[in-house]
Amino acid sequence: MLDALSLDQLRTFIAAADTGSFSAAGRRIGRAQSVVSQAIANLETQLAVRLFSREGRYPQLTAEGRALLPTAREVVSGMDQLKAQARGLSSGLEPALAVVINVMFPSNILAAAVSAFQVQFPDTPLRVAVEGMGAVIEPVLDGGFDFGVRGPMAATHPDLRSERILGIEYRMFAAPQHPLAQYGVPIPAREFAKHLQLVLSDRSKLTDGKDFRVMSEKTWRISDLGAKHAFLKQGVGWGGMPVHAVQDDLDAGRLVQLEPEESDLTTRMAMSAVYRADQPPGPAGRWLIEQLKAQGAQACNVVQDQGSAVSCRDEAKA
Prior knowledge:
single chain
């Protein structure tokens, strides 16, 4: 008997409960009052419970009706979600989206973009991984992620296509008690080479045997940017960080920006969306890429006249 239940009956039940009368429910769903009354009566017969008390001027939910109403809402909402998801899939929408983000990408811009994504694609599960350098590229090349957001690495890989999102300022820092912070400016390369350098590494094979902005023979290799940040504040060594990640420490005097003689130790680092040429993003992925660009442009425009850790100009290749 219960197999004969229809969504139309459940929608009618919900409308009657929400509006407080069968006539108002009819106006909401575009049915005559008599049709609403009959639909409710049929539903009560099929469920073998009384949903409304009809003794007064207006029908009142019974205890059974109040108990069943939340489940009726869930069933109708679930069916609406199923139909919306099916429509999206039939139009080419990805059933899920997997994205890998460079650890240096500004987290506030990422959070704003994925928050907007949740509103735009509420039925599309999103998986976000945060990695460094080559560990952003490898999972995209392997096809495990729909797209990545990389730094300058692998900018010309033949299997990948790239789109600029924004640029970030990348500088060298040390704790105020570190000898380099007290040396004065500019600091020659020979002085950097005397002190332990904290170097960000990654788990991929793409960076095996490669060093980026390494000036000292004394290095600690760290795969976590947060740990590197903490070590810098403790004065363990010196090293490079995206400016936006350490701005609070600069303002509070917990870190000092170092000024090297060599310009290649400081840069405006490009952050770009990257995906396989033979597997371009679908509608949801394309939307998220454009949202990352828009959020990056907004962050740039807000602070363009004040100096920013987000670069508004073309970046130097690195």
